[in-house]
Amino acid sequence: MNSIHLYGRLTKDPDVRYTSTGRVVTNFDMAVNRPYKNAKGERDADFFRVEIWGKAAELVGNSCKKGHRIVVHGSMRNNVYTDEAGVKHYGDVVAANNIFFVEKTAEAYKSSPNDGSFDSMGEAILQNDFEVDF
Question: Could you give the CA distance from residue 12 to residue 29 in angstroms, rounded to a whole number?
Fold first, then answer.
């Protein structure tokens, strides 16, 4: 079974592109902390490249920015291609099936009816704010 579940933060803004046939694809990188600390008492992170297609790709591209926390459910895929010089390149990518948005942005709280209610309390974490299925 090829299944992966990741909880982490985007390391940069998503990259939204359209194919020649008009399909939308979004790629982003995310950092996922390891569940243990290293010898220095710090948490190391692993970095994953994620790819999503369709309306969910547009939603992620329009809603997510660097630093946002998300949960990705999908599968690992090995990409192999040969460049113009005949050199083979290998890389892994997570093909997302489900994306869960874990938190709202600070801008969303500032425009809410309870303006400023979270400002003095730190960052709010909302589990399963909404889910995107393909």
Answer: 7
